[in-house]
Amino acid sequence: MSDYDVASHTKVRRIPERGHYDEETVHSIIDSSLICHVGFIEQERPFVIPCIHGRDGRTLYLHGAKASRLMAESGSGKPICITFTHVDAIVLARSLFHSSMNYRSVVAFGKGRILDGEEKMHALEVVSESLCKGRWDKARQPTEKELRATSVVAVDIDHASAKIRAHEAVDDQDDLAGPWWAGLLSVERRITEAIPNPDLSEGIETPDHIQARVGETL
Amino acid sequence: MSDYDVASHTKVRRIPERGHYDEETVHSIIDSSLICHVGFIEQERPFVIPCIHGRDGRTLYLHGAKASRLMAESGSGKPICITFTHVDAIVLARSLFHSSMNYRSVVAFGKGRILDGEEKMHALEVVSESLCKGRWDKARQPTEKELRATSVVAVDIDHASAKIRAHEAVDDQDDLAGPWWAGLLSVERRITEAIPNPDLSEGIETPDHIQARVGETL
Predict the structure, then answer these.
(1) Which is deepest, A62, A211, B22, B110, by most CB within 10 Å?
(2) Contacts with A141 from chain B: Cβ below 8 Å
(3) Which A positions 165-184 lie with beta carbon below 8 A of chain B?
(4) Which CATH number applies to A16-211?
(5) pLDDT tens digits, residue range B90-131?
(6) How many CB atoms lie within 10 A of CB A133?
């Protein structure tokens, strides 16, 4: 595992000890994120659009309808920014000033390119498996027509940084003996239930690779 | 309650029936979001940064360290985009092509301005109460020095749209009798625990307005 090169636009300037540039940290935050937020510029205006993703090495894959703004813009080769955020706790300090959040986030930069052929199929499998492991082989495969209606964008990450806060509230020394409470409200995202479709044919049970995910934190 | 004007950059083009422009829908998604993702342009590069927020009418408030890139750029009067996303389920259709997510998202556009004086204090209270209702009066108030180190940005929303998917998997007619499972994996974000700080003075109990939030979905 190596580090991402630090660039002026990815260097964590505010509270630099929260910054991380190693692949292990950056990729684990990306891989455990259910969605990402993709930023691009269209007509001098910034757009931020939520999207699902997959990752292979230092390459991120996004997919969407060929007709969508997100695919057209993110695949155009212009610089884009992709951000991944987990919220782990609301941090309530004695002072409002030191109140904060515990979080793990990654901000990644790169340029997107539209995929075709084998690399497109590989990327679709990566995105699908990232969302639901084991599903690629068990669902109905894409047809030629569906593939034509779908765009897949690869973004080779050129720079990325992670920022993590993962500790209790930290107050000024003078406030410690004060009358105020301090602590965390822990936040968790999890899969709560597998709900079979109402139109499911009789006798089709919820597969193990789906049922087993109930209770999983995301 | 009225509607946001529809603009070319906020019109939901892909699957237009998922688009909503009424204040009630847009604001309820904003208000129930724990964080937002702010998009801005710096040196022709898009940035997407996670941030906490508050809302008063059609105005969004963001805050952060005065020295941060986010505050400098979002308060500069250039166009910014603020996106709010809830994930409600992973939608697993029989076909990979129709697999999707259930979500509620808002994409809002406006220009930011740095606040001062009374409006700044009001905005800080709105952000604080949005994150933890009842806390503003019960925590240690900001000092003059802390206020000087904090920037607060107001963004008057000029255009916004919501996009919602909230239903079961929808497959092609030809696939309904096939051997594949279809359904939802429901996803929920919730507060799981209130954890008092290790350095809390003896005798300070977790306040009701904090303890009562354990179990709340976000």
Answers:
(1) A62
(2) 95-96
(3) 168-169, 171, 175-184
(4) 2.30.110.10
(5) 999 999 999 999 999 999 999 999 999 999 999 999 999 999
(6) 12
Q: Does A16 touch chain B (CB under 8 A)?
A: no
Written as six digits, the tokens of B194 are: 């209130």
CA of A25 to nearest chain B CA: how many angstroms apart? 18
Pair of tokens at residue A73:
């813009």
A35, B193: Cβ pair inside 8 Å?
A: no
pLDDT digits (tens, 9 = 90+) for A117-131: 999 999 999 999 999
Q: Nearest by CB to A192, which of B109, B175, B188?
A: B188
> What distances in angstroms separate CA B56 from CA B10, B119, B155, one per listed residue?
21, 11, 10
- ipTM of this complex: 0.96
What is the domain partition of chain A in residue ranges?
Answer: 16-211
Q: How far is CA A107 from CA A1, A87, B46, B56, in A?
A: 19, 15, 11, 29
Domain spanning B16-88+101-169, CATH class: mainly beta
Predicted TM-score (pTM) above 0.90: yes
